[in-house]
Amino acid sequence: MQIPFRVIFLYTSLMSPNPQTTFTPPPNPSKEGTPEWFYDEIMRFIEPDLLTTVIPLHAEKYAKQSKEECLARLQAYDRAFEIFDKASQDVAKEYRAGMEKVREEAKEDVQKGETKALQQIEQSIEEEGKH
Questions:
Q1: CA–CA distance from 57 to each of 30, 82, 88, 124 (Å)?
Q2: For position 104, what pLDDT does the model report?
Q3: pTM assigned to the model
Q4: What does 89-115 look like in DSSP terms, one character per residue?
Q5: What is d(CA 78, CA 129) in angstroms, rounded to the nearest whole number?
Q6: H-helix or E-strand spanning residue 87
Q7: How many Cβ atoms are within 10 Å of 41's Cβ, its own excluded?
Q8: Angle, in degrees to the nearest 10, between helices 35-46 and 67-130
Q9: How far apart are CA 99 and CA 31, in angstroms?
């Protein structure tokens, strides 16, 4: 399962608070299909420091950070969560639209199949009536 690329691309200019021109997101550390996977799949493009496996390491990683640095980092995290909220809403729209399309196609396929089955039944009834 993948997050639609155009949604990710839309947010690439807003990603990490210290963007790099060669920014390559880390791999998703979570099990595919889980809520954590969806969160990490989006967040790894926005702020890798907020991946579910990285957050527990913050206390040790930032233990010697000054108050000003800490506040700046937390502000950057707030911005990352705002971006995440927008991106996740767009992803949900993409999936919802995709599911609706699949649903409509399935419904059409069922109707076609039922129509064909009814035609075959009618044809066999007509053939039996001729005998």
A1: 16, 22, 24, 71
A2: 93
A3: 0.68
A4: HHHHHHHHHHHHHHHHHHHHHHHHHHH
A5: 76
A6: helix 67-130
A7: 20
A8: 130
A9: 22
Six-digit token pair at 98? 């995709």
Q: What's the token pair of residue 96?
A: 């919802």
CA distance 99 to 93: 10
Identify the H or E element spanning 67. helix 67-130
Q: What is the pLDDT, as a whole number, of residue 20?
A: 45
Q: What is the C-alpha to C-alpha distance for residues 52 and 68, in angstroms, rounded to an integer? A: 24
- Please report, in tens digits, the pLDDT of each residue of the chain (131 residues total): 566 555 555 565 555 555 544 467 889 999 998 999 999 999 988 899 999 999 999 999 999 999 999 999 999 999 999 999 998 898 888 888 888 988 999 999 888 888 877 888 888 887 777 76
Copy the structure tokens of residue 50. 């907020």
What DSSP element (H or E) covers 5?
helix 5-11
| Residues belonging to the chain | 131
